[in-house]
Each structure stands twice: as structure tokens, then as C-alpha cells.
Amino acid sequence: MKRRYRISVLLVILLLTCSCSIYSRAEAAFSDDPDAVERAADSVFMLEVYAANRSRIAIGSGFIAFENNLIVTNHHVIEGATYIIANSDDDERFQVERIEAADEKLDIAFLRLGKNVSYTPLQFDPNTKLKRSMRVVAIGSPAGLMNTISIGNISAFYRDKSKDWIQFTAPISSGSSGGPLLNDQGKVIGVTTATYASAQNVNMAVRASDVVKLYEKWSRQPGTYSAGTAISSGGNVVSTSENVDATMVYVTGSGRKYHLNPSCSRMKKPIQISLLEAIQQGYEPCGICYR
How confident is the model at residue 36 (pLDDT cuts 50, 70, 90)? Predict the structure, then answer.
């Protein structure tokens, strides 16, 4: 009788242990942990890309990885840029000092912030064998709506001669490009890159393994990449020739726009400030000056 009782107690303990373990595993899923997702979003930025005439030509996304002031994004996000502003989740704005490296074919770029920051780099998971139906979380700024979270799953894999992409269903749109695609362990498995406008939730991401390989290649030869220059593996060069701190614009105290021309008909008593300061104060480009 005592032996039967002990067996019953052991079975109850075993069942409780198993159920607790299952509950713990479910609780640990990144996509089901809002606090973990919020922490990851702290390391994601909305990127504003400006041309030489100080007009904004693109909005994209990027995230801190490898080093605490290095941003990973897509090459196409920063293509044609003269300078770039990175906006953090807590409303701080940073100048991108230079493009450290970029690969047009892989659609990857590394950006260096202009000052040291203490953001936590997101961790990559380049080695896990990916399978269809795996849960994923995308973080980015679709249509400029900063650090929007979407959840979906890996739906397929897209491969051709030049691309080896992850296809996934977490909704993204223009402005999401360059954001992280994370697995349920909260690690980056890809960089969100493209969406098919004519289809529903057919989205693509560059694989984490390609990003890690490019970083390792660059870190072995950092001296070959000069300040203000992006060098792709094909030898193409994109210059960031103008320092945003030295780029001056004109505003008025009661206005809402920044101007290229101090004689613009929409401005009175022009005040000269840096573009970065104008952006930080919430000014938008004048429609006449920046046609």
C-alpha cells in the first residue's frame, strides 16, 4: 500500500514537472513575450535618407548589431544618400557618420553612428536550420510608422542565381526595409528586404548568414573602407560627401518648415540652424525649396 502511494506521489510530481516545463517553454517564446519584443525594438531605428539638396528621398529601417553604434540595413535603403538620420525608439536622433560597408548584390549595408551609444546589439542566429511554419517577428517603420511590430511565419524560401531569401508572412511595407526578422528565441534570422504589392503577405528577407559573412569580411579588412564611403563586393562606391552637422538650413520661429533658400517667399526673418537641429525640432522640408 505504501509503495503504491509513493508511486502515485511520484507520478503526480512528474506530471506537475512536465506541465511546468511545457508552460515555461511556451512563456519563453519571443513572439509571446511583449517585454522581450519591447527590448528588441529599443535597438531598431527608423532611417531618414537625404539627398544632396537636403530633401528626404527615402524612409527605411535598421538595427544595432555586432557593435553598439553599428546599424545593419539594406543597401537599397541608403542608395543615393548624401546623409542619413537614425531615429531611435525613445525619440533620439543621431547622425550617421559614414557607411562602413555595403554590398549591392546582397542588399546589405553597415552604418556607423556619429557618436557612441549604448544600445544593445541584436544577436544573429545564422546557423539554425530554418523550416516552413516557424514563427517570426518583424520590426520596422512601414510608411514611417516607427517600430511597428508584426508577427507571422516562414512560408517558403526563394532562391535564384543571385538571391537566397527567406519568404515570410509577417506584414511589412515600404519603410520596413532593413528591419530585423527575429525567430522565437529573439535572434535575428534575416533582414526584411522586399514585399510583393500584388500579393498578400508575400515578403522577403536577406538571410542572417549573409549578413554575418559580410561583417566578418569587413572586420578582417577595415582599413580598406574609408570614412564616408560604402564599398560593395563588386567595387561600386557610394559617397556620403556631406556632414549633416555642417549642412545649414533656414527656419522662422513660428514656422513648421525648413528652407534651402533664405529668400523663400514662405519665410520671414530667417534663422540659420543645422539640418539635424531642424529635424530634431520637428521641422519638415519646404515644398517650394525642395521640389
Answer: very high
* Assigned domain for 129 exists: no
What does the pLDDT look like over 68-98, one tens digit per residue? Answer: 999 999 999 998 888 899 999 988 888 898 8
Run of H or E residues at 26: helix 2-27
Question: Residues 31, 75, 88, 107: which is the catalytic one?
Answer: 107
Say whether both 201 and 230 belong to one domain. Answer: no
Task: Please confirm, yes or no, whether 107 is among the known catalytic residues.
Answer: yes
Tens digits of residue pLDDT in 40-62: 999 999 999 988 777 889 999 99
Backbone angles phi, psi at 290, to 5 degrees: -120, 50
Identify the active-site residue in 31, 75, 76, 176. Answer: 76
- Does 90 share its domain with 61? yes
Catalytic residue among 61, 177, 210, 259: 177
Q: Is residue 142 part of a domain?
A: yes
d(CA 23, CA 1): 33
76 as an active site residue: the answer is yes
pLDDT at 3 over 70: no
103 is catalytic: no
For residue 15, what are the domain limits? 2-29
